[in-house]
Amino acid sequence: MKDKYSSGPWHVNGVQIINTPEDADFGATVVAEVCYHSNIPWEANAALIAATPELLHACKALLNCIDPARDWKEAKQARDAIAKATT
């Protein structure tokens, strides 16, 4: 199943988060923009957003390593986060 979000990798470019997929026929496109304000940690927010595709992939990969019969709170949190990100 194809992902519903813009393919990665995503990078921070000022207040913009851009994607630069290797298979793109066009240049980078803006995925998101963060609000710039001196009282908001906009650089940290931008970095977190830019890491989203890798974090999602890592969560999915880790869940594949966990015994599904185990009822771990952290595994449920990861499944819930994946569902939130992909629905």
Could you describe the 3D structure shown?
With 87 residues, this protein is α+β, with helices and mostly antiparallel strands. The protein has 2 domains: 1-50, no CATH class; 51-87, no CATH class. Helices cover 41% and strands 15% of the residues. It has 3 helices and 3 strands, in the order βββααα. The chain has a 3-stranded antiparallel sheet, with helices on one face. A hairpin with a 2-residue loop joins strand 1 (10-13) and strand 2 (16-19). Helix 2 (52-64) packs across helix 3. The two termini are 13 Å apart.
In short:
The chain has 87 residues and is of the alpha+beta class. It has two domains: 1-50, no CATH class; 51-87, no CATH class.
Indicate the topology.
Blueprint: E1 10-13, E2 16-19, E3 29-33, H1 42-50, H2 52-64, H3 73-86
Antiparallel strand pairs: 1-2, 2-3
Helix pairs in contact: 2-3
